[in-house]
Request: fold
Amino acid sequence: MIDWDSLVLEPLENIFGEAQHPKGKIMFFPVGGAAYPIDGVFDSAYREVELLDPMVGSNSAQPVLGVRLSMFHEEPAQDDVVYIPSSGKRYLVLDVHPDSHGWAKLMLGEM
Reply:
């Protein structure tokens, strides 16, 4: 069995994660607990194509944070907050999209 977290996700985060940014790590503020530092891959304008009509595609851009779920004390959830040092902004977690390998996209909204 492949250890996705240590063989794939951790190296990816070590290269592209926010911890590589001189302003430091992301702060995660769970709704029901104390804040703690995490790392992740931030994209300020992630685009997802939605096919509402097979003849017409639409897309929208929103901030997204890719994270390793193994970093969290409890899985991230809607209404948690993250502070991204590279942007200098706090974002509200609007939705969490986990995959089957221990990674999730936190769909964010500006506060």
User: Anything to note?
Assistant: The mean pLDDT is 84. The chain has one domain: 4-110. The radius of gyration is 15 Å. The helical segments are 4-16.
